[in-house]
UniProtKB/TrEMBL annotation:
<keyword id="KW-0489">Methyltransferase</keyword>
<keyword id="KW-0808">Transferase</keyword>
<dbReference type="Pfam" id="PF00145">
    <property type="entry name" value="DNA_methylase"/>
</dbReference>
<feature type="active site">
    <location>
        <position position="74"/>
    </location>
</feature>
<dbReference type="InterPro" id="IPR050390">
    <property type="entry name" value="C5-Methyltransferase"/>
</dbReference>
<dbReference type="InterPro" id="IPR001525">
    <property type="entry name" value="C5_MeTfrase"/>
</dbReference>
<keyword id="KW-0949">S-adenosyl-L-methionine</keyword>
<keyword id="KW-0680">Restriction system</keyword>
<protein>
    <recommendedName>
        <fullName>DNA (cytosine-5-)-methyltransferase</fullName>
        <ecNumber>2.1.1.37</ecNumber>
    </recommendedName>
</protein>
<dbReference type="InterPro" id="IPR029063">
    <property type="entry name" value="SAM-dependent_MTases_sf"/>
</dbReference>
<comment type="similarity">
    <text>Belongs to the class I-like SAM-binding methyltransferase superfamily. C5-methyltransferase family.</text>
</comment>
Amino acid sequence: MQPVLMVDLFAGPGGLDVAAEKLGVKTVGVEWDDGACATRRDAGLATVKGNVRDYGPSYRDFSDADVLAGGPPCQTFTVAGTGAGRRALDDVLGFVKRMVAREDRKQIDRELSKMEDERTGLVLEPLRWALQAIDDRRSPYQAIILEQVPAVLPVWEAYAAALENEGYSVDCGILRTEQYGVPQTRKRAVLIARLNGGKVALPLPTHRAYRKGVPRQVGSNELQPWRTMEDVLDRRYEFSVISNYGTGGDPEARGRRSSKEPSATVTGKIFRNRIVSGKNIERRRFSFSEAGRLQTFPADYPWSGRDVGQQIGNAVPPRLAMHVICAALGWVPPTEDLLQRLETWGSEEILESAVPSDANFDRPDTPSTGIRLLGAALGG
């Protein structure tokens, strides 16, 4: 399929959008965080600033969207969060069944608001959008792409059953980022669905899985070696990264990775990690650009606003996203030439592809000004 427009819920600074734009797919994101919106603006990404709950598939700026994507906030589903999401998992799965049965939405919303952490219910928003596109807009999304932390896989499996009942072909599972050329070990629960065009399947790995102590040359000859931090960072010396987190909760036993290995999972605390070389010589910590590169954002991506570390840590690695988008759309896997386009972020390149021709917002007068944020919060 050739999409008209992809709407990205909880779009953050643009991981999915960056990948889509480089593939020639127009995007518009829904995001409420001021910092992420600042980055998106400076990157020239079309953005509706607001709460995903306040919008739906018929909203004017993405009523033509035929691809739905999103990564709901993961705080309540992660070890680093409160754990409310895990404890509420059975409730969330029950809500999926009730939504598919088309029970009264207002009643469901009232019950969601009473959960231990009301953010947990945000994981259900993509399903609401998908069902409303079917029932209200009468124009279902042709493809759906969702990602979250591994603990959310049971929710995606419930989504898969629901979407299959609506006529979609669906696949979901856990993907390891280093197996798609991301210089970082990170696991994500991914769901892709397509309404027409045959059976859908998650992308096959292109690189070997990282195993501590096992050289990257060891493994299947059909897969490339995993990529290292020194493959993507322009530091002229070997170094080690000492994690901000203690192993097993012991602050004296912090994780350590060599520059000749993939990074550990990039989190919002990445700028607290120490970097040392030689005999524990302290080196400067990661810059915004370097942290972004470990997530495979372009080296010149214009990180802006507050909490840049959190923006980077919460984002989808664009290189992984490019593989997932191609699989969801039924395209062949991205070529190395396409993947290399993620190395830089050219403003002129994205201006034509980032802006739907009939969307209700302005083109920037110059590449550096970005695209005007949308939504009632900014006056229209």
